[in-house]
Amino acid sequence: MKLEALTPILYTEEVEATIKFYTTYFNFVCNSYDENIGWASLSSGNIELMLSKPNTHIAFTKPNFTGSFYFKTKDVDALWNTVKDKLNICYPLENFDYGMREFAVYDNNGYLLQFGQELNNSSI
Fold first, then answer.
1. pTM above the 0.70 mark?
2. Which of 16, 25, 112, 116 counts the highest number of beta carbons within 10 A?
3. In the chain, what are the domains?
């Protein structure tokens, strides 16, 4: 068996606001949205996300996730400069000993999003 892709589904009661967040700040495109069932599909390059209102089979009080979503980019500085004064920052842009230049923000639901670039591929 070979797995081919992973598409996270982010549960939210605010599907429209979450579509707006990802399309505004991170150049995602909304490929499909069904307001009746509270579901959307977003993409940016090879990255896909689904958004969904939780169904009745899932206990849901608020969005939660015990990890983060890590996005690799080729120009982390440009992305940082675009969002640094507009979003809820977890930690600012910095270089790390493990070879990454990265920052982290929270999306409109509170999910942690990290953005990084390998230092050896950076002009920094």
1. yes
2. 116
3. 1-55 (3.10.180.10), 65-124 (3.10.180.10)
